[in-house]
Structures are given as structure tokens and as C-alpha cells.
From TrEMBL:
Protein name (record): GntR family transcriptional regulator
Name of one Pfam family that matches: GntR
Region (Disordered): 1-21
Domain HTH gntR-type: 20-87
Species, as recorded: Streptosporangium amethystogenes subsp. fukuiense
Keywords (A to Z) from UniProt: DNA-binding, Transcription, Transcription regulation
Lineage: Bacteria, Bacillati, Actinomycetota, Actinomycetes, Streptosporangiales
Keyword match Mitochondrion: no
Amino acid sequence: MSGRMTEATGTARTPEAERPQLSDAAAAYIRSMIMSGRWRPGDSVRPEVVGQALGISATPAREALHVLRVEGFLQLLPRRGFQVAPLTGQDVRDLFEAHALISGELAARAAVRVTPEDLAELEALHHELLAAAHRKDLALLEEKNHAFHRHINLVADARKITWVLGLTGRYIPTRFYSAIEGWPEATLHDHTGILAGLRAGDAEAARRAMHDHIANSGDLLARQFDRQAADDESSS
């Protein structure tokens, strides 16, 4: 029988069934490269290069490029192929502001639902963040940061809002947060305020702290885009 057997159903998983997952992974990778500033406006994006980076064929990578063209992250130019579309610091701030508003609502809901066990888990994650930062283990820092936010969203128990957060979260470069100048330090500081709001059961304090944390992260990233734009202008 062709294909692999899935653990959940025992049915064969065909290449056709896997391809949407591969194209989604390729799209996430490209978004992160663009949003982190590693790929700049005007840079060429070739499906075979993306496929090689992810260990997949060019077909799902090409599908991802077309998706990102619809989203406005890429342009398709005659005889030149796909290129990164213009992206400014203000664009980055706007994307993070949308994410911050939704994250703030989830934090507010979590503040009135959080249990002592939840707080203990969040405190433990925060201490692991501190330890990772002290060791300059930025990969672990990003992992624990993701777990910290994910636990708050789970406590909020608002499935539809969390789903919408996932839509905006696609544009947040989670894999490259640690490359943003000032992000590790800001994260450690901001999480302290979020925890204080949750401990107090103060929904509005948790909302403000979470909103400001996400918006601050966006501003740090946006400053990188602003500097890159200024450098490009001065060198032209």
C-alpha cells in the first residue's frame, strides 16, 4: 500500500494529503524570514531555495509563494519572479498592534480564571526564561516564551478568540525573536508585569501589561526595519 499509516486513524497518508501541510510550513518559514528582516523588500524568493532550506520539494514551496502573494508579502514580477514586497516599520507596528489587542483580551480573561496551579506553572516558565537568558540560550528562551503565552491563552478558555489570535500570529516571527535587538531583556521585564496582573486577578492590569508587551516587541522589530530603510536610503 502506498503512503504511510497515520497513528490516529490507521489510514494511508498520501503525498497529496501531506502537501498542504508542507506548503503551510513553507509559508510560515517565508513569513518569518520577511518579518524578521532577514529577507528584505526587493529580495528574490525562489521556490527551489525555500524547498532546499526546508528539505521539501519545490511544488509546495511554490504554492506557499502564491499564498504569500495574495497576503501581500510577495510580488510576482514579469521575468523576475517572486520578490519580497515593500514592508515598513509602521506596517510591522500595525501587525503587532492587532496581535496585542487580541492577546490583551485573552490575558484579561485568564486573570479571572487562573488557578494557583496555573500561576505556579507560569512562574516556573518565567524562571526558566530567566535561566535561559542568563545562559544566553536564545533558542530555549524562545521556546519558554512560547510556552508562557500559550499557557495564558489556554487558561483564558476562549477558543474563537484564540483562533483569531492564530491568524495574526502567523505574521509574528517567533523563530527569530531572539535576533531582535533588546527583545530578550524586554521580555523578561514585561512578563513580570503580566504575572503581577494575573496574580492579583486584575483583568484590566493583565490586559494592559500583555498589550504593552506585544506592542513593545513590535516596536523593537519595527525599529530594525526603520534602520534598514535609512541605511538603504543613505547608500542609494
